[in-house]
Specification:
This protein is mainly alpha-helical. It has one domain. 69% of the residues lie in helices and 9% in strands. A two-stranded antiparallel sheet has the order 1-2. A hairpin with a 5-residue loop joins strand 1 and strand 2.
């Protein structure tokens, strides 16, 4: 039922592209070099240890930018494997900092994982509930339909009453809003943890 229009990675890369327009030449160059590395990591072509090696001799500003892009690539529609991968990457980069705070990062990422699990469970419960509502409030009736060759034929059509349709939409919106607020709070915590604003 959840329409996954764009992957979290695509959204993050688009946001990075927008931020590039606002950034300076040095930041643009840094992002251009970081993105292909993260892309390889997200695609499983390199692991967390190899990611660590890619950034081993980089300044802290590089680590922050890479972590920012990783956090941006997370979303409510992320699956647990994506969350775990980002956690491994964030921790690998955190360990390269002068004053790493691995335990705080692990705690926030545990909260992210828990929230994604809750969101997926709530999505499934809502989907089942909405399917029952639709099934119980949908009527079938014969209606005249126009065929491609211009003939009119009678065809069985299912229709949902307007009240049920509104309830379905409202239920989804309420759930999304509840989780979105919590999600934004977690992302802010992650950004604050690495010393950046959301």
């Amino acid at each position: 039922m959840s329409d996954k229009i764009k992957s979290a990675y695509e959204i993050a890369m688009e946001r990075a592209d927008r931020l590039q327009d606002e950034g300076n030449a040095e930041n643009l160059e840094r992002q251009d070099q970081i993105k292909p590395i993260l892309s390889k990591f997200f695609q499983g072509k390199i692991d967390a240890e190899e990611l660590w090696g890619e950034f081993e001799d980089k300044e802290e500003s590089w680590l922050l930018e890479a972590q920012r892009l990783m956090i941006d690539s997370l979303g409510l529609n992320s699956n647990l494997q994506e969350v775990e991968l980002r956690k491994e990457g964030l921790l690998a980069l955190e360990n390269l900092k002068e004053k790493p705070d691995v335990s705080s990062m692990e705690k926030i990422m545990a909260d992210v994982k828990k929230m994604v699990e809750q969101y997926n469970a709530e999505q499934e419960k809502l989907r089942e509930r909405l399917e029952r509502m639709i099934r119980n409030n949908t009527s079938r009736e014969m209606r005249p339909m126009q065929t491609e060759d211009g003939r009119t034929v009678m065809q069985m059509v299912e229709s949902m009453d307007e009240d049920t349709r509104r309830q379905v939409i409202k239920s989804r919106q309420e759930m999304e809003k509840k989780f979105q607020q919590h999600w934004e709070s977690l992302k802010e915590q992650l950004f604050a943890r690495i010393g950046l604003e959301a």
